[in-house]
Amino acid sequence: MRTAEVIVVGGGPAGSAAAKRLKDGGAEVLVLDREVFPRMKLCAGWVTPQVLSDLEFKVEEYPHRFLSFRRLHWHMKGLHLPLPCVQHSIRRYEFDAWLLERSGAEVIQHAVKTIQRDGESYVIDGEYRCRYLVGAAGTSCPVYRTLFRDAMPRVRALQTVTLELEFPFEWSDPDCHLWFFEHGLPGYSWYVPKARGWLNVGVGGMAQRLKHRNEDIWLHWNHLAEKLSRQFGIQLPEEPTGYSYFVRGPVAGARVANAFVTGDAAGLATRDLCEGIGPAIRSGQRAADTILSGAAYEIQNVTGASLGGGLLSHWIDWAFTRRAGLVAVPT
Ligand SMILES: Cc1cc2nc3c(=O)[nH]c(=O)nc-3n(C[C@H](O)[C@H](O)[C@H](O)COP(=O)(O)OP(=O)(O)OC[C@H]3O[C@@H](n4cnc5c(N)ncnc54)[C@H](O)[C@@H]3O)c2cc1C
Could you please report the per-residue DSSP string of 227-252? Predict the structure, then answer.
C-alpha cells in the first residue's frame, strides 16, 4: 500500500492549489486524478485579476495562451454596456496542466472509487493510505460522495447545466461578450476569445428553473448558435459538450475529521456569474493552510459573488434562482 501524509483527489485548480501550498509548506503530498494531464475540461477559461494574484501568477512566465480583454460587453434586456475592464482568458487544457506541474507534487493517474476510514487514516481503493484527505474532484467527487453528502447536502435550486464548445477560430472581435436572460434563460451565454486563434462559446442556466419552464438547455444553445452565425459569422464546427455544477450554498461541514472538500466538490462557484476557478483555488489553499497550521478551515469567507456582492450581485442571483428558500449570496 502506498502511503502519503496528504492525498489530494483531483488535480484541477482546487487540487493543484492545495498541492502547491502543501508542498511549499513541506508536507508529503500525492495527487490522484483519473485523467492524464493535459486533459480536457469544460470551462470558458475566464480568469480574474484576483485569481492571478492568489496564484502569484506572472504572465511573462506562463508559456501558453493568455489574453487580456479591454472590454466586457454586457447584453441584458435590450441594453448593451461595453464596460472597460481588466479580465483574462486561458485554455483550461493548458492552464490546469501547467498549474499541476508547477505544484511540484507527485501525480498518479487513478480513478478513485472507494474511501474508508481506518483508525486515524483514510484508505483509498485498498491501495493508498493517508492521514489527511482533500476532495477536489469536481461535482462527482468521491470524497464528497462518501464523507460529506449527509453533512452538506446539495441544493437542487443551485445546480447549473451548461453546454460549451472550444475550437480554433480566427476571431476579429477580441472582447468578451455575455448575454443575460435571453429568451427567458435563467442564466447567460458567452463568447470568450483565446489568444492565438481559439474561441470558446457556451450557455449555462439553472437546471431546476429550466425544468419548471419545461425547457432544455439545448433550446438556448440553438438560440446562441443562431446569434453567433448572424452577428459574428461563426459556423460552429461540431456539437457542444455538457457539464453540471453547483453554485454557492451553505458550506458549514466542509471539513469532517481530517478530510476536506474544496472547489466544485464543495459547490463554491459564485452565485452571480457562476465563476468557479477563483473559489476553487482559494478553498484549496485554505485546506492546505489548515493541514499545515492546524487552524480552522475558513471557507465561509471565500466569496460567493464575482461582482462585489452589491445590488447587482443580489439581483442577478435572484433572477437566476428566484431564491426559493435560499440564503442570500455570501459576499
Ligand atoms: C461550461 C462551463 C464554463 C465555465 N466557465 C468558467 C469560467 O470562465 N471561469 C470560471 O472561473 N469558472 C468557470 N466554470 C466553473 C469552473 O470550471 C469550475 O468551477 C472549476 O473547474 C472547479 O475547479 P475544481 O478544481 O474544483 O474541479 P475541476 O476543475 O472539475 O477538477 C476536478 C478534477 O478531478 C478529477 N476527478 C474527477 N473524478 C475523479 C475521481 N473519481 N478520481 C480521481 N480524479 C477525479 C477530474 O479529472 C479533474 O481533473 C465553468 C464551468 C463550466 C461547466
Answer: HHHHHH-PPP-S--EEEEEEB----T
Say yes or no: CB of residue 43 within 6 Å of ligand 1: yes
Using a 6 Å cutoff on CB, does residue 266 contact ligand 1? no
pLDDT in tens, 304-321: 899 988 899 989 999 998
**Ligand 1 centroid – CA 189 distance (Å):** 18
* Bridge partners (DSSP) listed for residue 47: 88
Which residues lie below 8 Å from residue 219, measured CB to CB, with a gap of 6+? 183
Judge whether residue 327 has pLDDT over 90: no
Q: Are 16 and 57 a contacting pair, CB within 8 Å? A: no
- Cα separation, 255 vs 16, in Å, equals 19
Q: What is the CA radius of gyration of the chain?
A: 20
Alpha carbon distance 92, 202 (integer Å): 15
- The whole-number average pLDDT for the span 182-197 is 97
pLDDT reported for residue 77: 85
Q: According to the model, what pLDDT value does residue 88 have?
A: 97
* Confidence (pLDDT) at 321: 87
pTM over 0.85: yes
Ligand 1: centre distance to CA 160 (Å): 13
158: which 3 cell numbers? 443551485
Query: What is the rounded distance in angstroms from the CA atom of residue 309 to the CA atom of residue 306?
Result: 7
Ramachandran quadrant class, 122 (left: phi over 0; alpha: psi -120 to 50; beta: rest):
beta
**What per-residue confidence (pLDDT) applies to 325?**
58
**Angle at alpha carbon of residue 138, lines to 197 and 282, rounded to 5°:** 80
Q: Are 92 and 45 in contact (CB under 8 A)?
A: yes
